[in-house]
Amino acid sequence: MCRPGLQIALSRVFVLLPLLMTSGGLSSCVTKQPEYFDPSQSSVAARKMQARVYSSVDEADVMSAAAAVLQDMGYSIDAVEFQLGVISASKRADATSRWEAFGSLTFDSMKCVFTFLIGCDGERYGAIDDVQDVRLTMVSMPRSNGDVAVRITIQRRIFDKRGRLSEQSTIADADVYESLFARLSKAVFLEQQGI
User: pTM here?
Assistant: First the structure.
């Protein structure tokens, strides 16, 4: 006859042994970090396009110059966190293409005539792009050697004539960032000169 303590211990072993073997087998499957944690070449290129380093400047001068440049470009400053080095700005712009609007209006009119006024819903005209909300975020970070690293990202959301979101993307045009950084460089220089 088995002692009660030994019987309980054996029953636990028979329950726990399959669990331990299964968990050990599963943990041995994970050997490498997934690839989605590695930066892609496109993200490295985007970071290079969106970032600049300003030498021998004060971070406050860069932030002040950036706020002035953004306001000159028609942006509204939404938030400024000087201690974190973050400026967030936005603006609304027209996204309507005259040729797209003309084509869609013509198509809807022809559809209306051919269906004898039954299909007059303006479906294509209502689906063309109307406005875009552009949101810009600038992050500055001082370095130990007196330089200030700046990264700017620009996103846009495009809405159609019915107010539905038709596109959302990050601006990836190098010319846009080059033009913005050229303006910022001039403004930083003027800020340093006290002008």
Answer: 0.64
